[in-house]
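Researcher: Please predict.
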Amino acid sequence: MFKFVVGIWITAGLILGFAVPPIVDNATGGRLMTPQIAFFHVPMAVAMEVAFILAAWNGVRWLMSRDKKFDALSLSYAEVGTVFGIIATCSGSVFAKSNWGAYWSWDPQQVGILTTLLTYGALFSLRGAVEDEDKKRNLWAVYALIGLLTALFSTVVYRRLLPEMGTLHPKNTLVTSDPLNKFALWFNVTGYVMLLVFVANVRARLEMAGERLKELQWA
């Protein structure tokens, strides 16, 4: 049932994105081009952050309970969040080309999300390099916290430390847009977060199934 709700919600969000008027850049006062991408790109980026928060939280739950399902959830949220981040980066590049003339300009926000994705790529490699299962899970819980701190600083905190014109990206779009655009943005954020939860839980079940197969092989 949940997957049908998610599908209907996301479809409605896409339609809503095409129906509302263009978003206004609160830094310049001009209307942004290809606004429909914003209703996909921004929610994807927010869902990425939510995924990394849930990855860290489930890592802590593993340390507290030693229940393998929490480690599986932590890894799954991190993996799906990384995929969402890649999608947000690609769609953001198209948006950047339309509004600022280049797919990539080393804008602080672009550098921040790239740093985040590279960090998680390194953390996945570090997890894979450990053979002892319990040690791998313990280390991953720490890695997930490190990844979350990196993501929050690189994509949320750092840009707010910059001067007003230090980034091309409009600031606080989710809270300063006009009411209709704000509703459309948050509607889509909700949809993609629900999609994140659904996909991550499916991925976690696959991870747990893989663990049970390993246990049967050694039994």
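Model: The first helix runs from residue 2 to 19.
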